[in-house]
Amino acid sequence: MAISIVLPRALHQYARGTNVVSLDEPCPTVADALASLAARLPAVTDRVLTEQGELRPHVNVFVGTESVRFLDGLETELADGSTLTIVPAVSGG
Amino acid sequence: MTPTLTTDEIQRYSRHLILPDVGVEGQQKLKAARVLIVGAGGLGSPVALYLAAAGVGTLGLIDFDVVDVSNLQRQILHGTKDVGRSKLESARARLHDVNPHVRVETYETRLTSANALEIIRGYDIVVDGTDNFATRYLTNDACVLLGKPNVYGSIFRFEGQASVFGMADGPCYRCLFPEPPPPGSVPSCAEGGVFGVLPGIVGTIQATETIKLILGIGETLAGRLLLIDAQSMQFRAMTLRKDPACPACGTRTITALIDYDEFCGTPGADAMDDIDDVLEITPRELAARLSGGDDSFDLIDVREPYEWAIARIDGARLIPLGQVPKLLSSLDKTREIVVMCRSGVRSADAVRFMQSQGFARVRNLAGGILRWSSDVDPRVPRY
Hints:
Chain A is α+β, with helices and mostly antiparallel strands. Chain A is built from two helices and five strands; from the N terminus they run E-E-H-H-E-E-E. Chain B folds into two domains: 33-269, NAD(P)-binding Rossmann-like Domain (Rossmann fold, 3-Layer(aba) Sandwich); 277-375, Oxidized Rhodanese, domain 1 (3-Layer(aba) Sandwich), CATH 3.40.250.
C-alpha cells in the first residue's frame, strides 16, 4: 500500500529537509499513517498530534483535497495511492 | 446610486471597459465599492496597489506601524524616502499617485474588539493583510457578525495560503483553524524570515478575489483553501467546508467580539515574562568583561548558521538551539556560561533548559545581538 504524506515547509526543519514522506507499509487509516510518520519523524508528528493523539486544532490534515475534520477524523480510511497533506496555521503578512 | 465615470476615468480604465465580464457596468461597481484592508505591510501593499489601480472607489487602510528599512524588501507600497514615516501616510501618498480618483480612508490604530465592528461596518469587503493570529481571529469574527466577505491571505517563509471567508453559505477562518497555535510556536516574519516576493503573490491573489467579488464574476476561493509553495511554484486547492459546529458561523454562539490576545495567548506579554525569570547580563557588562580579558566564562550563541553568517560577537561559540541538548555534554558545568541569540528570547529558553540539566551558572544576554549592536558596537549589523 503506497501512501504519500506532503509536509509543509514549516515542518521541514523537523523532517530532515523532507517534503514528501512515502509509506509502503499498510496504513488503513489516517491514524495509522501518522503513526508510521511518528516512527520515522517524531518531531513532525509532535506538531500535528497532541499527547493524547488528537489532531491539534491549528493543524489540518487533508486526504486528497478533503479535510479529515469533515470525513472520519483520524479514523478516515485510506486507499492505496492516497496523498495526505498537512497544513498548519500560519499568520505572516 | 451608480457612479458615473469621468472622461479621465474612461481613459484610465479603458482596458477594463473593453474587457468582457467587466465593461462600464463592472467599472462602475468598482467605483462604488468600499474595501477595508487590514494591514499596510507585506500583503496589504500589493492589495492596496492593485485595488487602487483597478479603480476601487474607497479604500480603507488600518495600520499603526512606521516604515522600517527592513520592510522594503517586500512591502512595495513604501520606499526608501518613507523610512521613519507612518505607513498610512506613505500608503496614502503612493496610492494617490497610482490613482487620484480613489478615496483613501486611514485608521492609524490597531484593530481591536472595541473598534472593529464600527470600522468594518462601513465597508463592503474586508481584506485580511494582518501578521498575527489575534487580529486574524478578530477580523474573522467581526466579518461573520456583520456578514462581510473576508478575503484571507497568510504567509510563512516560502509558503502562503489564500481563501475567501465569510460568504453567506461558506466557511469562516474558524472552520479551518478552530484554535490558534500555542503562543510563540510560529515565528513571525521578523523571527523566521520571509521570501520577499511571496506576499506579492498572495496579496495579488487577494486583490484578484476582491475584484471578482465586487464584479460578481468567476469562481472565488470561497470553499477552497489555496496553498502556494513559492519554491516549487506549486499551487494546490483544498476543499473547505462550513463547519456546522463552528461557534462563529455555524452555531453562532459567538455573538460578540472577545479578548483575542487572551484567546491566542499574546506572545509579547508572555515572552517578556519568560525572559524576566532568567538571570541576565547586559551587552555593556559583557563587553566590559570581554575587553578586560575575562576568560572565566563561555559565550554560547544559539542562533542558526545563516544568522551567524550575518553578524556575530567575537569569542562566541555557535550551538544552534536545536543542537543544545545533544552538545550539552561538551560544555563545562563548573564554568559560567553566557547564552545569546538575536533578541534574547531563544537564549532565555536555552538558559532555562540548561538550568534544568544542572547548569547553575548560566546567564542570558539581555536583548541579544540586537542590543549589542545598539549599545556596544553599531558596526554589528542589525537584521
